[in-house]
Input
Amino acid sequence: MICHIEVYGCQMNVHDGEILSGILKAAGHTVVDNAKIAEAVFVVTCAVREHAETRALGRVTHLAGIPEKKPVMVLCGCVAQEHGQRLLEKMKLLDMVIGPDVYHKIPELLHERRRIAVTEQGIENYEHVTAVREQFPRSFVTVMRGCDNFCTYCIVPHVRGRERSRPAELIFKEVEGLVEAGYREITLLGQNVNSYIHNGIDFPKLLEKVSVIAGDRCWVRFVTSHPRDLTMELASVMASGKNICNQFHLPAQSGNDRVLKAMGRGYTRNEYLHKVTMLKDLMPDIVLSTDMIAGFPGESLEEFEDTVSLLKEVRYDYAFLFRYSEREKTAALKISPAVPVKERLRRLSILQDIQAEITKEESKKIIGMEMPVLVTGPARRPGQMASRTMGNRLVILESLDFTPGQLVQVKIVKADGYTHFGRPVSL
Ligand code: SAH
Ligand code: SF4
Ligand code: F3S
Output
């Protein structure tokens, strides 16, 4: 069949889309970008916030109408896991609803052509699937799946199941293959990479070995780390591995101790700040980012101010800011009083304004600096190429004389927060 895949949500979902593509191709199907000619359409969905869920379901309705003949519509990902059979009953245009642990069954199910919801949650690691990667020269490698943290606002542990680590040998083999195939960047993926453990190999050891295998020509990153589990050992491995990117996503969620406790995060503001200091001491040029939630149930105005002050104190390069969204099955649903939606939005926009300013100021600090960038592909505007710094900053090169995968030494000449402009310099 001619298949089209659309993916929403986090990097884990993006990579699951590549795994799904691998499964379909191995079964003899063709995967195309053009939805018009598709006979089967797959939407890989995210359930982390209500908005993400609504948007993905909206796309299902839209996509079903694109091909001339109604395609087989398959809903995958976290919304599929969350609603399963219920969704199949409610959305008549869906033919299949398939949770993130059962993609390997899709070829067989396509063959059977039944309307069905399959949402078994198991220990699936897709160990024997060859993912079809779409983002050369960048690549994702899953190290662990699932999450056991059960932060009280979060649906991920409910839809992604329990934590399981992939065997280290398989990860090393996959990395070797990617380096051989010319990939120049590897991002190790997991909801909580610091929990990685397999036959005595923990995450710092895994990262160290991956960095050695990747060698001089390939950069290594990872997401996401839980601040509670960030150790000195991990920070030292990062600081000493020359190809390990000086970038850290360290989601704080709140700057207030009582709220952090109600969220079940397992650290205090001070403990969090100590870890930030440890990272900055070891890697002064580190690019730091965070996630914050505004209007968690019971969050008072004073408590919210602590989140504002944390943004100002850490001065993150980037922050992903969200208003609290009620999610099924999560413990925070029982916490009262809820902050009114309007007030959540008001707090969110305060955080956004403050962070926008900080992001801009921090990015201007690199103007005039020279650094290597990895060319990733054409930029949005014609005549320009896009590239990334080791800190994962986007740098635009105003020329087409570069190929994806090339490392170029540039001087940063302009910066406005998210976009930087670089002029090549000769070494
Ligand atoms: N495992 C990752 C994040 C997964 S979800 C981690 O622990 O960092 C990505 C982000 O979505 C979270 O960090 C959180 O800030 C946000 N998020 C999760 N559930 C949410 C909810 N119910 N409402 C608003 N934001 C939420
Ligand atoms: Fe969700 Fe917390 Fe797990 Fe991250 S660590 S996925 S926020 S439960
Ligand atoms: Fe969303 Fe599922 Fe990722 S809920 S954030 S796509 S794990």
Observations:
- The mean pLDDT is 95.
- The chain has twelve helices and 21 strands.
